[in-house]
Design goal:
alpha+beta; about 40% strand; binds copper (II) ion
Amino acid sequence: MKGYTLTFIIILLLIFLLIPFSGWGEGDLTKQKPIELTAMLGNKNGELRFFPHTLSLQTGKLYRLILSNPSSVKHYFSSDGMSRAVYTRKVQVNGKNGKPIAEIKGSIREIEVYPQGTAEWWFVPVKAGTFNDLKCTIAGHAEAGMVGTVTIR
Ligand SMILES: [Cu+2]
């Protein structure tokens, strides 16, 4: 009985000692602390622009891109090139109080954000490139200047 207890304690100790070195999350790029970026879709004055309209990203880093829409109309954040060059961990939809109310997993092509809404796109760029196809796909918005560039190095 005593030998059994001692063995059990030793095994427990070994487990606790080995956990920090077991590599949990190592190599899993989506477990990094994210780099936070904010992009505004339009603004309070109704300007049809992305603020900023260029995003500069690096492969292998986890990003938390906060898309907020302070305007009074809905907008899209849409870049085919970027969507094909990143691995999406999740998209998080936040409620009025800023707390998450939904998480969407899987490949994302574009995100629509409603007036006063916020969504967070968590992703890891996996392919370098310059994508000049960032746009809002609402009729007339891209033409009015709601376009941008995403660069991944
Ligand atoms: Cu728009």
